[in-house]
Structure formats: structure tokens, C-alpha cells
Amino acid sequence: MNNITPRLLAAALAAAALSSCALAPGQHLRRSDLAIDRQSGNGQLEIVTITPKLVAQENAARAQNSLPAALFDYQPAPYTVGAGDILYVTVWDHPELTVPAGPQQQGTLAGRLVQSDGTLFYPYIGKVMASGKTPMELREEISNRLAKYVESPQVDVSVLNYGSQRVWVTGAAQRSSPIAMGTSPMTLADAISQAGLDNMQADLSGIQLSREGTTYTINLETLAREFGGRQLLLKDGDSIFVPYLDRKEIFVVGEVNQPGAYSFRTGDVSLNQALGRARGLLQQTANGNAVYVIRGSTDLQQEPSIVYQLEARSPTAFAAGSQFHLRPGDVVFVGAAGVSRWNRFVNQLLPFTNILYNAARTGTEIRDN
């Protein structure tokens, strides 16, 4: 009986070791592991092979998400004065009307603020409704009303400070503040340039322009490539958000030389580029047919997460991988080859050999005693 007990113990430990190694890391995914059971709701993964046809479908879907042409067709109307503007009204040959406090009053103090009700006060003629008028229209009105008191007045109206029409730039900008619009049309590039981008944190492919309740996602690189350098003109009240780069990462794990999380500023990062950043596949251990892109679902109850497989041993597959674009949050996993899985099996089994040895030694000592 004493001889049988150590053998039973050793067999039990070996079985436990084998069962734990059955799930050893490095094994490639099988389609049977990813079977979808939509009726029961248990299916949470779906495997798709990366092929040229799939890449073409993905690129077609990306093209449909392009910016609408109407966004580029917008042309701003001539600048109109509004509340918050500071105007400088000049009446030639009448300095007492141009600068009533005398030549010592300089700068914006000599200007006239358009009040919240859209009016400004001017000597002799009193309140003038300025809001909604262009500087030229306002000049004509002041000239006509001054003509009762000044013979043939020559009037000029200019804007000292623009305060009524603004756009906002927030997010990964060096100066997150309202930007005043002037008489010259302001482009998206102008606003971003004035706000300044934080080059270490800004995501240049996900800039969000909000206009009248609609938000457009703009990739600056795509904007230059697809629209031939056309300028996107801004509208009063537009809001621009520059997202931070830290939310845009892809993860490369498994049999690669340098696994880790990688951020990218552009929106066109291919699977091959991600593998390149990870310094390529480990030649001794990687399974070329076990390159996967794991893309999570936002609602697993409604649709499964998708696992894309690239059979990287094929040159055609590598060509498809160069055109397969990744999304933020994607996980690139490279499985291990069969020999590597066996080596890991052995390495995980080795710690149990000490337990088996100790169990056998204990049994021998019990028998001898």
C-alpha cells in the first residue's frame, strides 16, 4: 500500500500539470473557439480572414465617411459689426469728432464699443444701430446723419478690436481660447495655427469641427490628400476640438521583437506598419499564419468582437496587410509556432518535476522506514 500511494500522488500531479498546459499561451486561435451562437447570445467573437476583397470593402467604407462637399462650398458673407466690437470712426478735418478727448487719447481708448444692444454713441447724432451692418454701411449712415451738422463730412469706419465673431479651439492646443474673426475669411488652418498645436499630444487625424449641431471628424493628412489643398473656411460660432494622442493607441503582443502600446498621429496606420514598429516577427518562434487583429465591439450583446487573421507566410497576404488599416484600441497578436508551444509546454512542466521528485522521494522514505 505504501508503494502505491506515491505513484497515485505523482500521477495526479502530472495530470494537473497537463491540464494547466492545455491552455498555455502561444496557441493560435481556432475557428471552433470563435463559433458564434447568436440565438443564445453566447457568441462574442467572429474570425475574418484578411484578403484583398476585405481590404477593398474597408477602403470603400472609409471613402463613404469622407467630408461632405458642402463643407468646402461655404463662403462667408462680408463681415458685419456686432456687440463687443470696438470701432474707430474718423471724420476728416474734424479731429474733435474723431478723438473727442484730444490727441493724448490713443489706442483702443479712442475707439467706440458696440454695446450689447448693438448700438454705439456718436457725438451730435446720438445712438447708432451698428450691429448687423458692414463697416461700409455704417460709414454711410454716420455720414448721412452728420451731414445735418457738418458740411460734406468724409467718414471712415474701421474695426480696432474684433469681439463679436469668434471660433473656439480647445483640446491639445497650446492656447485654448476664443479666436476673433476679422474681415478676412478665416480658415481651419488659420485657427489651428493661432491656437498652436501641442505636437507631443495632438492627434492630427481626429480633429473635430462642430458647426450648428453637427460634428465633423477631420484628418489633416487626408484633407490635404483628398481635397487637393482646398481651404476649409470657418463660420462664426464654429468649435474646433483637437483630441489628445493618448487615447489613440494600438497594442502589439505575442511573438514580436518589441511588444508594447504604440500611439500614432495619422489615421492611416496599416497592420504591416504596426508590425514594423514592433520590430517584426520573432523568426524562431512566430507562426506566420497566426497574425491576428482583435477589434472589440462597443456592445457585445448586439454584435461580436471581430478577430481578423492574416496568413503572413503568403506574399499576397503581406500586400493585403499593407492596406489593412488599424483603428485605435486594436490589438495585434502574433501566435507562436508549434515547436515554440511545445517548448513552453516543457518549460511550464519543469516546475512540476520538482514536486514529482519530492513526492517520489517521500514515498521511498516512507517505504524504507
Automatic annotation (TrEMBL):
Keyword Ion transport carried by entry: yes
GO CC terms in record: cell outer membrane; pore complex
Single GO BP term: monoatomic ion transport
Domain Polysaccharide export protein N-terminal positions: 75-159
Subcellular location: Cell outer membrane
tRNA processing as UniProt keyword: no
Coiled coil residues, start to end: none
A Pfam family recorded for this sequence: Poly_export
Protein name: Polysaccharide biosynthesis/export family protein
